[in-house]
Write a structure and sequence with these properties.
This protein is of the alpha/beta class. It has a single domain, classed as Spore Coat Polysaccharide Biosynthesis Protein SpsA, Chain A. It has 10 helices and 13 strands. A 9-stranded mixed β-sheet has the order 5-4-1-6-11-8-12-10-9. Helix 9 crosses helix 10.
Length: 278
Amino acid sequence: MDVRKAVIPAAGYGTRMLPITKAQPKEMVPVVHKPVIQYVVEEAYYSGIKEILIITGKHKRAIEDHFDRSNLPKKDKHIEKLDRILNEVNIYFVRQREQKGLGDAVKYAEAFVDDEPFALLLGDTITIPPCTKEIIKVYERYRTSIIAVEEVPVEKVCLYGIIACKPVENSIYLVEDLVEKPSVDEAPSNLAILGRYILTPEIFDCLKNTKPGKSGEIQLTDAMRILSKKEYMYAYLFKGKRFDIGNKADWLKANIELALNDKELGEEIRTFLKLLGA
């Protein structure tokens, strides 16, 4: 079955972005012309997906408001582009009742997924080019769960879910194990899960059997570890760029890099950086 649906968890507190996120969702933090979650929705759309579920939480109403049709008397080209996308996709919302981790949030998508493979895109991560489009192509070859990964410095493995794997072909690995935020000594590799997945619906049974892990939360990595023992699971080494807008340094880097590549703002920002001696 083809991948027709996407799930976007957007229920986290955004504590690494405080005080910016004290009164606004981290997924609504702007990156150049638009909030980060709009980049994520567009990634799903440009990957051929038209059915999207966004999992929100308390104090996240701004996300739903953003994806309403615009009734502004005068629209600029950015609003017009968003409205064109909204005319072609169906976006649904469900609220995670308690903050019990990413794995718990994904549980809320079971009825929406309805026994189909689905794309999972973290709502605070931008990938360029769209990583989801690439892993859908990998899924079409292997017809099983696919995890996008990236190489990270060894000293940063403790910040990510890390995979143990063996190479299959160029950029493709067979997943043998997964570990959530291991120490440097415990990490089986430096290949980190970057927040883009194609998952089979069997993940929901695995989530039901997943006990609280790191930080006392239901970890998606732990559920995928169970899934990897039941079916083949592959990892795709993404060679594009990923920006984790959940931390301030990546957020600032994303704004600078994307602004430099923007037709409207690029020249002015480039001139400004030269004046700063950057």
